[in-house]
Each structure stands twice: as C-alpha cells, then as structure tokens.
Specification:
- The chain contains five helices and two strands.
- The protein is mainly α.
- It folds into two domains: 64 residues, Winged helix-like DNA-binding domain superfamily/Winged helix DNA-binding domain (Arc Repressor Mutant, subunit A, Orthogonal Bundle); 42 residues.
- The longest helix is centred in the last third of the chain and has 18 residues.
- The protein starts with 17 loop residues before the first helix and ends with a helix.
C-alpha cells in the first residue's frame, strides 16, 4: 500500500464548488499515480479539520467518487481507492510531460497568469476534440 498522505487543497476563487474540487483532485492524483489502488483517502473528519468545510461537502465528494467507481467506502474503516482500478501510468509519457512543462514555463515567462493558461488549455482541448469529431 502507498503510504504517502494525500492532502486536499481548495481554491476559493476558482468558482468551482468545493466538492467538485475534491473530486477533481482525487481523479488527478489517481491519473498521476499519486494515489494507487487500496490507498486510503483522508477521513471526512480529517478533511473537515484541514479545510474548514462542511462534512456534507466531503461526503458529497466521496459519494461522487464512489459512484464513478474510483473509490470504495468501508464502513467504520475509511474510503479507499478501488483495489481493482486499472490506470495507465503517465510515467510512460515523459517526453510529453517535459514538453508540457517547458510550455508552461514559457507561458509564465511570457506573462500569462494561471487563468490565461487555463483558458488556453481549455481552448486547445476543445479544438483538438472538434478536429476529431468530438463535441
């Protein structure tokens, strides 16, 4: 089992609901290999204490993740990444990662802030999807 502690962070200025930020962070951590099958997520109580948010917000996020099949809740024990989850590791894409990191450095050096970078990335995803016939 992966022993590293997983910590959530909230961006109160993002406009994204807190529960959805938690969901996105777990998805991202699984994709990046920071969370692996059988890893335990922080308890609802731990997240509430760390982020000063409602327990219902954390419960909503964990329920959402469970409905997606990413985690499993074990009553009285905790919430764990699904043990039989298969994820393609991104480590196999080191060349793409290096180019992306270089692009991000260049974008920041050109004076783009996080909002502008996010907008460019979203536009690129939409254009790439459109060119493949994906709506």
């Amino acid at each position: 089992m992966h022993k590293e502690v997983f910590d959530f962070q909230l961006n109160t200025r993002s406009g994204v609901p807190a529960y959805l930020q938690l969901v996105q962070q777990v998805r991202r951590a699984i994709t990046l290999g920071r969370l692996r099958p059988n890893d335990r997520l922080p308890t609802i109580r731990e997240v509430v204490a760390a982020l000063v948010i409602s327990p219902n917000t954390v419960l909503k996020a964990y329920t959402h993740l469970e409905l997606e099949g990413l985690v499993i809740s074990r009553a009285g024990v905790g919430t764990y990444v699904q043990p039989n989850l298969t994820v393609r590791p991104l480590q196999n894409h080191s060349s793409l990662r290096r180019r992306l990191f270089r692009w991000l450095r260049d974008a920041r050096a050109a004076g783009l802030d996080e909002d502008a970078i996010d907008a460019l990335m979203a536009a690129a995803r939409l254009e790439a999807g459109d060119s493949e016939g994906v709506a």
